[in-house]
Amino acid sequence: MSAATTTPTPQKLRTRKPLTVGAVAKNLGALVLAVVFVFPVYWMFSSSLKPQHEIMTKDPVFVFTPTFENYKTATGVDLFWTYVTNSLTVTIGAVLLALVVALAASFAIARLRFKGRKGIVLIVMMAQMAPWEVMVIAMYMISRENDLLNSIPMLTLIYFVMVLPFTIWTLRGFIAAVPVELEEAAQIDGCTRGQAFRKVIFPLLAPGLMSTSLFGFITAWNEFAMILMLNKEKESQTLTLWLTQFQTAFGSDWGATMAASTLFALPVLIVFLFLQRKAVGGMTAGAVKG
Amino acid sequence: MTVDSQGTATAGPQDAPGRAAGKSQTPPPSSGPKEVLQPPRGRRSLPSGVLPYLLVAPALLSMAVLLLYPLIRNVILSFQQLNRKEFITRETVWTGFDNYTELLGDGDFWTVVVRSVVFTAVNVALIMAIGTAIGLLLNRLGKKMRLVLSLALMFAWAMPIVASVTVFRWLFDEQFGVVNWLMRTLGFSGYDQHNWFETGFSTLVIVLILLVWGSVPFVALNMYAGLTTIGSELYEAAKMDGASGWRTFWAVVFPNLKSFFMITTFLEIIWIFKAFAQVYAMNLGGPDRGSETLPVFAYIEGVGQFHYGVAAAISILTIVMLIAVMSFYFRLILKEEEEL
After folding, report:
1. Distance from chain centroid for Cα A286
2. What are phi and psi of A284, to 5 degrees?
3. CA of B140 to nearest chain A CA: how many angstroms apart?
4. Which B positions 106-125 lie with beta carbon below 8 A of chain A?
5. Would you say domain B96-339 falls under CATH 1.10.3720.10?
6. How confident is the model at residue B245 (pLDDT cuts 50, 70, 90)?
């Protein structure tokens, strides 16, 4: 009752709540689950920092002096920087292309009325579910005929089409969320359609563009089947293949393998956490109010 | 409208922004009614004519060249004999339906089909059950504990596939793997140097654990986002009526999130059924081709055995099965769209 009169801070509420068996079980369960889900990531990270002799033990070591030796081994591999460059070229190229192409298409779908609009929405939806993993054989034959095996541009284009439907779909939502009134107001104030788009919609889209492109980045960064099939030459491979081959190349040097995994996972983990904090929500909050 | 956003959320790639999409639940509503109410005012001023077509042309063109054309080529390839000889001489040998009849009469093919279907079914059932349970748990946790659990889920979700496969190989390593140590510590015998990848079945069990671990966060976090949209008065009403937790779930939560459940289930079926990297990178489909699922089977028939025509036929049959599942998925999505 007093909780209703005083403004209850969460802490006050908590101290008042009796510690029931259910509450304990609930929190304990959550804690166990959290450990289970985070453990593989933690184990990758900690193994990557362990000196060799503390990895090759029957009983795992939990306390150790961190060393960067494994990272030296991992990055010292032949062509490591080629793989990094290839990975970045392919992913960033694909995402930028997709953004430009998708922005145009999603604007048309979200804002313009034209014959065949519904059909295009349907095509985008279906393309989103394209089973790329099972299309590798055909893609290989096509690339082979056109001398596009081991080609970074070809891979970039494939990844571009892979992330395109998703990009169109999400941007469509973001554009639709910008009230038409804002655009109209800009036009009344003397903007042309193009200006209205550039000065009004585009700035409001920034968070949407960012989160969409980051998810596109993750998809392309993760891709495995296509590159495995198409780019067999060392010089044209990406970090994805480097990581899968690392294990075989280095036998049981798990420390270096885990360092390689960490290096591969880190950009995505950072992007993900970044997304959570910055890019989510609130995009039109200021514009729509009032 | 909630549904549209769920479609948006869930229809993305495996790493689709569940949270982001959960939040984008706000956009569609504003667009939905507007589209119905405002066409005369908002749209008439817009230029009609060729502009929309010019805007969508690049997207359609690139999808036609790099998605539709490969699909068509895949169908054509499946009617060709394309073994080592034809592969090298680059000649085209048509064989009609030979590849298909060969496959459909092949016991190995059916073994892989059954394996893939069972593997997918078990996986999706586990993912949905555990994901839902964790989603419900998240909804009932205090603020701090919820943050801890969501963060842990986030890490598992964000982990790149190939990295997580590598880590799982290390966790389940025969000699120094931490799982063998854990089993010994828990008092099980026979885990001194237990080989977790000894058979195709055991390998698939590890892949299953990996897939469940990696997919549950998506379901759980989306589930939680969906739960927060259910008004607390519904729970209170259920509580007042003396409903048990189980009954509250079936009477309040499930009906409200039914479309979420359906859509997510179908998405998971599609994702798991066509999963390639996890299965292949874990043990290359081995040992003895015992952990091959359909996509891996197609790859190995082609690249490993030099039967590209047969491989193309396998992928077409896989795509046909996927389309059967997808048709349900699209029916669901379109139904929701119409409700807008």
Report:
1. 27
2. -110, 10
3. 8
4. none
5. yes
6. confident
